[in-house]
Amino acid sequence: MGEEEAAAAKLAFTPTWVLAIVCLVIVSISLAAERFLHYLGKCLKHKKQKALFSALQRLKEELMLLGFISFVLSLSQGFITSICIPETSTGIMLPCKRDNHIVAEGAKICKKKGDVPLLSLEALHQLHIFIFVLGLVHVVFCAATILFGGAKMRKWKHWETEIHREVQKKLQQANSEGKGTPSSIVVLHRSHQDEFVRERAKGSWMKLAVVSWITAFLKQFHDSVSKSDYEALRSAFIVMHYPQKPDFDFHKYMIRAVEHEFKRVVGISWYLWLFVIVFLLLNINGWHTYFWLAFLPLFLLLIVGAKLEHIITRLAQEAAASLSKDTEEAPKIKPSKGHFWFHKPELVLHMIHFILFQNSFEIGFFFWVLKGSVRA
């Protein structure tokens, strides 16, 4: 009796109540997850969170892709395990040292002497689990990222509330005096941007590129966005886009912008799957690929953080240069694509996308190896 016939026999002599209970549990968990995502989507649509709803759709697509991959692996496992290759080719590029008896057990499946299966059933099962764990951890990691990011941005809400109170107070004073656009609002914008320039561009030594980069690198570890940074960027944005609405809710606009960009970094793109394949190819015994790869997301994260901080510093330096002339106008803070690498802000998003995936990959690979070690 072959393996497929033995499996069929085992299923044929399995009590029906066991099959029913197992199917009930699997179907219940799947339906509960599907309903949760469905009602979460309805909630986001009801609150008009279009960007987050789009991100949720991306996550659904990723889960559907994982399900399709699982289906293909399950459907083709008989065909894959029936492919035989020469035994000599299986000793190249091994991730771990192998015992000879393992090869001998695999050789029993192949009829031709000296041949072994392309992939054993157990190895295919482990690969199946690895892909599923990778996708699941990536979904959880993306959700955790937006939750922690939202918690960080809630701090900015207090600053926005304080600015609104100050603006409303000055508008009420202007209305009581019968004035139009209060000059105090212009003074307020100037004070916000003056403080920003003093903190970011004070001292002639800050003009040195090396010093500004070192300062930007260290700044990301503590208070990466200070109150003066927020106030200055808010003032510059309002002066440029909403000069007649000094009470514009800049924090709400920032939340929408972050949600819009978040949907672009959710999901596993094709080049990220290619990265997984390259890692599996280079995970060779003695190369310590997993160890060296762990430094890659940290290195990229520090580079991105330093670059964003340096952009803020450059904005302050340009604003300080605009004050060289004796003028009563506010410093001119002009965000530009020229501050980014190759004039493309999308590169930063791609790097953040890769960092999120790489962290998920590291955590998923750790749990996968841990499961294998416990099982062994």
Overview of the structural elements:
The chain has 13 helices and two strands; from the N terminus they run αααβαβααααααααα. 16% of the residues are buried. The chain has a domain at 153-358. A two-stranded antiparallel sheet has the order 1-2. Helix content is 73%, strand content 2%. Helix 3 packs antiparallel against helix 5 and helix 3 (50-82) runs parallel beside helix 9 (250-265). It is elongated. The chain is mainly alpha-helical and 376 residues long. The chain crosses the membrane at residues 17-41, 62-80, 127-148, 265-284, 290-308, 347-370. InterPro entries: Mlo (IPR004326).
Give the helices and strands, then pairings:
Layout: H1 3-12, H2 16-46, H3 50-82, E1 84-86, H4 100-107, E2 115-117, H5 121-176, H6 183-201, H7 209-219, H8 227-241, H9 250-265, H10 270-282, H11 289-293, H12 295-322, H13 346-375
Antiparallel strand pairs: 1-2
Helix pairs in contact: 2-3, 3-5, 3-9, 5-9, 5-13, 6-8, 6-12, 7-12, 12-13
Largest sheet: 2 strands, antiparallel
Number of helices: 13
The termini sit apart by 28 Å
**Strand sequence of the main sheet, in spatial order?**
1-2
pLDDT average, as an integer? 78
The gyration radius over C-alpha positions equals: 29 Å
Strand fraction band?
Answer: under 5%
Overall number of strands: 2
General shape: elongated
Instruction: Work out the helicity level.
Output: over 70%
Which secondary-structure class do the elements indicate?
mainly alpha
Listing every helix as H and every strand as E from the N terminus to the C terminus, the arrangement reads HHHEHEHHHHHHHHH
- Low-confidence region ranges: none
Pfam families: Mlo
Keywords: Membrane, Pathogenesis-related protein, Plant defense, Transmembrane, Transmembrane helix
Main location: membrane
InterPro entries: Mlo
